[in-house]
Amino acid sequence: MLRVDTYPTHEHNGIKIRRGKALPFGATIVPGGVNFSVFSKHATSCELVLFKKHEKNPFAIIPFPDEFRIGNVFTMMVFDIDYENIEYGYRMDGPYNPREGFWFDKEEILLDPYAKAIGGREVWGREPDWNDKFQHRSRIIFDDFDWQGDRPLEIDMKDLVIYEAHVRGLTKHPSSDVKYPGTFTAIRDKIPYLKKLGINCIELLPVFEFDEFEHSKISKVTGERLMNYWGYSAVGFFAPKAGYAATGKFGMEVDELKNLVKELHKNGIEVILDVVFNHTAEGNEKGPYISYRGIDNKTYYLLTPEGYYYNFSGCGNTLNCNNPIVRNMILDCLRYWAAEYHIDGFRFDLASILSRDQKGAPMVNPPLLEALAHDPVLGKCKLIAEAWDAGGLYQVGSFPAWGRWAEWNGQYRDDLRRFLKGNGDMVGRIVQRIQGSPDLYSDRGPTASINFITCHDGFTLMDLFSYNRKHNDANGESNRDGADENYSWNFGHEGPTDDYGINRERIKQVKNAITILLLSRGVPMILAGDEFGNTQFGNNNAYCQDNEISWLNWNLLESNREIFDYFKKMIEFRKKHPVLRAEQFKTAYNSSGYPEVSWHGQEAWNFDFGASTLTVAVMFAGGAEDYGTEDDQFIYAAINMHWELHGFELPELPEGKSWYVVSNTGMIPPQDMWDENNHKKLADQNEVLVTARSIILLTAK
Amino acid sequence: MEIKVNNQDDIKVIKLIGDFDGSSANKVEDNIMPYIENHSRLIFDMGECEYVSSAGLRVLLIIAKKLKSVEGFGVLSNLSEEVQDVMEITGFSHMLNSYDTVNEAINYMKKGE
Fold first, then answer.
1. Distance between CA atoms of A565 and A577, rounded to whole angstroms?
2. Roughly what angle, to the nearest 10 degrees, separates helices A292-300 and A324-340?
3. Catalytic one among A349, A407, A626, A632?
């Protein structure tokens, strides 16, 4: 059926147009043409600028007639557009007065804040033409991917095992053995590997279009080009990073990413995106015009009374997240990714910024966070906050949650690291961390806690036990950048060594760390590559290193096979024991006749919670009735982070059950970890001897 | 883009010559759709089609779905490695089987009888 409004009413230099529809924002393919809609509260006029793909000069500049404006929205429908072969932008006129917050410049061609695809950086690392005034070019796409019945997986939060990965870093290294290294599609090639490891959720570092050339320069130390490699700096929030797509050069990054999501889902793996709404790539007063600054600076950014950019992000500007316009853009954006890309969840970078009001002050009930928590489209999405910002707000345990928000538990990371390094004062905190951090999340349950020991930001797990200090010289900032407080320890030699003893200690520490992580209640997150001892050579802030410092070296999978095997079996172990994945902080006696979680010292049932000690044991008793298992499950872990051997008296089991060894990090393979059907019965059922800095994990049969 | 249609018994071999993109998508769709009727069998010879854009792939997908709805059958042949990869990577490869040559495609279709 033909629509009445599919006929042009106006013409501009031979191009047929009519008034468009104000909603949705962005460029939408409609019968007969494309509907353009863009907001600006303070612009006095607006022009649509159309380019043939890749061309420097526009083929048409169409002013929006004032009669096409509806409220603060410029709208226009343009007929007979070859949508696939054009790029578009806007030019906005209005006041220029930075003190008042106005930055209009009618010469600047601006990216559509709602652009669903963005040209200009289609091939990663290809030097852009800097003479081109229009660097990031809005493109038009069709959202008609053939999902074949797919939808987000909705795996229970309690059952997740998250794997944090950088799209490019995961497969760019020559050892990764994929056809198109460093791309979305290469992740597909790694699906069998990810399944074997046993993770069921991959969290991708930012995939919204960013400019890898932002702040790019040649390192004086290495002579290599430093890139904006991590990409925590969005150019546009609705478009996937074209340079991450093998088909980006054909403008097909949208389909490539959707197909990746579909294939991951088919294999039981969810996708969480790391999203960065705290700032944009436009930087501070000296930054470029990309979009927001030229479209409505005062609306999009938090400004000081003198008109300067607030810098709560540490990246030059701060998005005005609790302005109703920006808030709606963020909502539209996340709904779009959830509905059109079937994304399962989001991790919000420096999320505390989202709780600041328009003057920068933290709010008790930030409307944006509340709206996200209650949004219908996002109703089943995971929402995970990095609950701090660079402006000094630290909200771990107190992030406004509405029963929906989980947090990266930075406390977990720090406490675990300090305890593993040998700080016995931490033991009280370790008790909290293993239980899912009831001290932080008493109202919210363990699944509010994303437990991690390492993430992209900081040392890799192997480096944590190989370096005392960060080694960031290659970043070109004289090793000043990156965290100084890493709670790391090199076991007597800084960096790689041939010393067998030191290398064994490091591998053992990696296994100790992962054992505690996967026994802890809450949601475990693993940094990609940690499962085979990947190294960044001591760099703890590799944000600019597009090279072997950041790229996972898959050769290590062979040399460190024992680490991979250990991770894999620990993940399996977690999956088989629901008591570890509890949604409540239950510790009291249950149907097993034992307390659900109990703490022991070198004597069973006797643990001094006030002590400073490096020996502690935890027992989980999963009652069959409580957890729907075939039989009552008993798990006992004797943790000895002391530098001497200690004996642990074992709690007595119910009649007919005996203790069996699941793993012993103090042993070398194959005795470090036994298969499910091959667990070794302890000869002495009353006591285990745990060697220095080791964990023995037992289960009852 | 040029479109040549040959009949091999009751199989139509459709040769697409040139770039199959947004500017030719409508033309291909308009030209091919009339061939799709009950049980029709189509082979696309892509040997002289070096580039298939997103709009081109969408036309192929629409054709594939239409064929399925009338119990017809369509396959691709002679795809360049690049086009084949693009289809595979972007999730369009499930819609139409692909054969190295037109003859292989014909043999397959005839055997399918």
1. 19
2. 120
3. A349
Are B89 and A259 a contacting pair at CB < 8 A?
yes
The arithmetic mean of pLDDT across residues A111-125, rounded, is 97
Helices (H), A341-460: 367-374, 410-421, 427-434, 438-441
Element (DSSP H or E) covering residue B15: strand B11-17
Taking the mean position of all CA atoms in its chain, how far away is CA B95? 10
- The reply to whether A368 falls in a domain is no
Give domain status of residue A66, yes or no. Answer: no
Chain B CB within 8 Å of residue A83 CB: yes
Domain of residue A658, CATH code? 2.60.40.1180
Distance (Å, whole) CA A347 – CA A359: 24
Chain B residue at shortest CA distance from A147: B91
CB A82 within 8 A of CB B23: yes
- What's the structural domain count of chain A? 1
The vertex-A36 CA angle with A31 and A41, nearest 5°, equals: 150
ipTM comes to 0.92
pLDDT surpassing 90 at residue B23: no
Strands (E), A100-242: 102-103, 117-119, 137-139, 162-165, 201-204, 217-218, 225-226
Nearest to B90 among A82, A142, A255 (CB): A255
A5: phi then psi, degrees, rounded to nearest 5 = -95, 20
- The dotted CATH code for B2-111 is 3.30.750.24
pTM: 0.96
Structural domain that includes position A609? 586-700
A82 touches chain B (CB under 8 A): yes
Tell whether A176 is covered by a domain.
no
Residue ranges of domains in chain B: 2-111
Q: What is the pLDDT of residues A565-621, one digit of tens each?
A: 999 999 999 999 999 999 999 999 999 999 999 999 999 999 999 999 999 999 999
Q: How many CB pairs under 8 A join A and B?
A: 58
